[in-house]
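Risk register update: the risk of archive-format incompatibility is retired. Evidence:
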Amino acid sequence: MKHVNMNVPRDCGIRYGALSLALLFAYPALAYTGQKLAKDAKISIAEARAIALKAHPGKITDEELERETGGTGLRYSFDIKSGRSTQEVGVDAGTGRVLENAKEGRNSD
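Archived output:
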């Protein structure tokens, strides 16, 4: 068997390992805007996602938990893309009730 020289620098593994760790800590897994408010929510974000996708099937492109008027005052807000349009679906974090299900406007949050 002949040895093939690939000309890969010896510290290449260290560089990629350090980069991977930096990215891991820079972007926490499963984080979403408003996550600190989750302790006040009665339903989880996973339950809210299921409710939102039942109200408007598609792909969730953005999600947040926010204090907003209406319902119990705490809501999950999802942008759901279906085809060319994006729908904003709001789910009350206290009751699970759909508070909003409307086409996303031009100046979205």
